[in-house]
Every structure is written in C-alpha cells, then in structure tokens.
Amino acid sequence: MIFRLFFLLFLLLSKPLNAQTEPSTIVVTPQAYTKTVIRIPPLEGDIRDEITNAIRNLINLHLFCVALAEPPLPGLKSKEYYLKGKVETKEGKYQFLGELIDTFDGRLIRGYKIESSSVDKLAGTITDQIIKAVSPYQGVSVTRLTFVKRESTGDHLYIMDFSKKNLKKIRSSELILFPKFSPSGKKLAYLTFDGRDYYLEILTLATYDLKKIKIAGLSSAPLWLPNERELLLTLGREGEINIYLFSLEREELKAITSGRGVNQGGSVSPDGKWLAFVGDKSGKPQIYLLDLDTKKVNRISEGGYNTSPRFLARGDLIYLSQRGGKNELILYSPQRGEKKRFSLPYSLNDPAPSPTGDYLIFEGKGKTGKGLYLLHLDSLIVHHYLPFGSVHYPDWGRSN
Question: For 84-100, how does the pLDDT look when each residue is reduced to its tens digit (9 = 90+)?
C-alpha cells in the first residue's frame, strides 16, 4: 500500500511496513542502562548560571549520561565525573578555564582552555569535549536539525540548534517535502509544491542564497553526494519511478535505475560509493545496495516489507520493518554481513542519523504522544525531543 500511495504523491516515504524473519540476525531489546553521572555545580564567572545551565541541558540531551547540579559527596567513592572551572569575558569573546575530574580516585581527566564568540557555542564545545572524554562518542552539541511543521496555513520549514535554541523559520509554502542537509551542513535541499509545479530548492545557509529548479512530475527526497555538486533524485516519469543523478552545475539528469515499479532513493554512503534504495521488483518493497561506480545491485533484505534505509557515519546501514505488529529497526553491517534487530516500543518514521552516527531523530508516537523523538543507538534510550504534532521529515546536519 505504501508504494501505491508513494507513486501518487511520494508522501509516505518512511512509513514502517511488515517484514518476515531474516536469517543471521540478532534481536536486541531495550534493557536497564546505568547512565554516566557528570556533576556540574555552578561554574565561576559573571555568566555562570547561563553557561552552567546550557552545559547541563546539552549533557542530558546526550541521553546516556546525566548532569547533576550537586558537587561530589565528601568521602564517597563512585565512578562519576566532576566539572569545575570559570568563564571570563575578554574583548567580546568568552573563555572557559576548567578541569574534568574522575571522582573515584580524584584523577584529572582533562584540563580545558576553550574560547568562543558566543555562550551557546562555548557550551556546545565544552559539552562535546566532556562527552569525548567520558565515552566512546564524539558528541552532537554543535549540530542542528531541520523539520517541516504542517499547519492550516501551509508548510513551514524550520532549522534549530540541537540544544533546541535559535529556532528559525526559513521557508513557507503550500507544501514542503524532505529537507536534507548537505554533508558539510552548509546547504539545505528540499522540495516545494506551489499548487501546480514541484521545485527543487537549494538554500545556502550562511547567506540564504536560494537556487530554485523546476521538477517535471512527482519527486522524492533529494540525496546529496559527498562532492555537494550532485544529488540523487527519485522521479516519476512515463509511468516509471526511478533514481536519477542530477548535476547542480549543468542541471542535467542521468538515470541510475530503470524499469517499471518503484525504485526509491534512501541514502548515500559517507564515501559516496553506495546508494541504498527501496525497490519493489519482487512485488514487495525490499532494500538494495547499488555500487555507484559499477552499477552492480545487491539485495540485502529478505521477504516482507522494508523501508527507510539510512547510512550511518561509520558505514553501517539501518532500515525499518515491522514484525508481528511490533516496530523494528534493522542495523546491517556491509563489512560483516551481520544484522541486528532492535525491538522498539514505539512507531518510527523518517529516521535521520546524527552526523556522528550514534543517534537517530525520527517522527514517531510513544507513550508521551506524537512528535520528534531522539534515540541513542547503543543504549536504546529514547527521549521525546519535540512534543508537537504535525512535525515531519526531520534531518540532522553539522553546524558551521
């Protein structure tokens, strides 16, 4: 059913569908997880409350760790971390001098001297340095998100920092679909519909320069190649839905897939070698990998319905399915040929990986209602990130 609807309007790009049991898979379900404790009492300095609260908020948004306002308890040895330091304002800039201490043995983990032009950027940099010091992750504080808010007045495209600050409405139209950050985070591609025609729009975020290209027929999510001069577009032409390479410089199209049915682009690997896409050649949607150099195609899913393939930064691939009425996330390693199934107690649509590959942001519905949810992939901890209805097509990019 999703592909019939997709053929008509391409609006159900990422709805989870039924999938059969696959061989060589590992089933993973959410389990109890002990969060890493980072104690952050008020820092010193004239903006101590602002910077301290910003760091705590960002630490907590990383989900696997928790920021506590209380200082370490005297005489109590536990595996925790303690941040102390001072923020000074110098010549219009903010400087942090501080230390991160392992409270179990009093050992200094890191010393910091960090300077930034704004409190938000300083808090983000400090937080990511802490995350890197206490875990195997890079931190996502200095990233940003985009999404479409659908209202009675039409669609509105927003962008904001991961901290949920600096929310900006950057475009309004009758219909806005599938915003995608470029790999560098400097540009945003999306589709608009004005009631008569579809357009591919490319927005340069630093200058807000806009390039607008008319698209003949229906289209789906634009997928950036690493060079940021080309995109892959899923287009409906002459009764067929296939994937095309589009040159922004020459504004030329070149077919990547062919044949009847639906071939729907999903994600390009970080090195630009592979395209993951959904095809219904077998009668039901399956996940395929296409080598963009040799054009060789391999099917990686087996039976049932599968959709929404997304490459992670490390090269692994995720996609969505549903078994016995339960939503599942499949993690596939092309290098090892191994699959892991994550049983998830909530709906999962339009997943977008973080630039680091450790998190997903997705449209969903859980016990706390609809909206955008944040998921840490290793711990399976989930957070109702934006508790608003009618929020669609989230994407996650680097901040500049």
Answer: 999 999 888 999 999 99
